[in-house]
Design goal:
The chain is of the alpha+beta class. It has one domain. It is built from eight helices and five strands. Strands 3-2-1-4-5 form a five-stranded mixed sheet, with helices on one face. It starts with 8 loop residues before the first helix and ends with a helix.
Length: 229
Amino acid sequence: MEERPLNVWQEEFAMGLLKKLFGREPSLTKLLSARIVTDEDHSYFVSFSKHHPKLQMPEFVRIVLHYYAKVLFSFDPYDSEMRRSAAMLKRMMRSVVVKGIERDSNFLKVANIDDVATMVSTPPANVPREIVGTLFFVDAIQRHMTTEIPRNAYAQHIVFSVIVLLQASLRELDEEGIDVLNRSLANMNETYDSGVSYFDMESLTVVPTEAYLAALKSSPYLPFRTRIF
């Protein structure tokens, strides 16, 4: 896949719409951020920052879901290379769901990128790019995701960043969380495969939210359902 800088027009459009709806910059409660640092060698470092004293484990599920949706949304649908990048990401996530998420899952291997990308314990230094995804509390049901993506990040960096975030989330989840994450991603993929547009503004929030809520209903882990926020 040819590496090209990511088009960020959707990010600007999304923030512009929020400003229009709220009449100002939206004032939402910041919950959780994921910092992903990558470089020319496709080394990836992931860290999390908790912004709320009462942060619950389900938010680590939701940040993965909303980041996945946001990355798909960020690919320009009118650019053929970006469409191929989105298709590649969906194929990777489909492979993850088919294989199933376990405590010891190696998602880079499942996604067939372990010969290209590696996860490292310190931020890489060969022309680093820092990507930040932040999850905000809207209400008991809804979350909002913002992303900061440098203009020198290639589409491949962005695609792979979803997989490494998924991998890093396993450190924060118990078996209940892993089950809900697995079910949620399966629901998202089913929705996208049914023809729902990933670059539709409504889908940006609705798809990950409904996928998560449906996963809670089908999960055998009742205690997890009560840990909304």
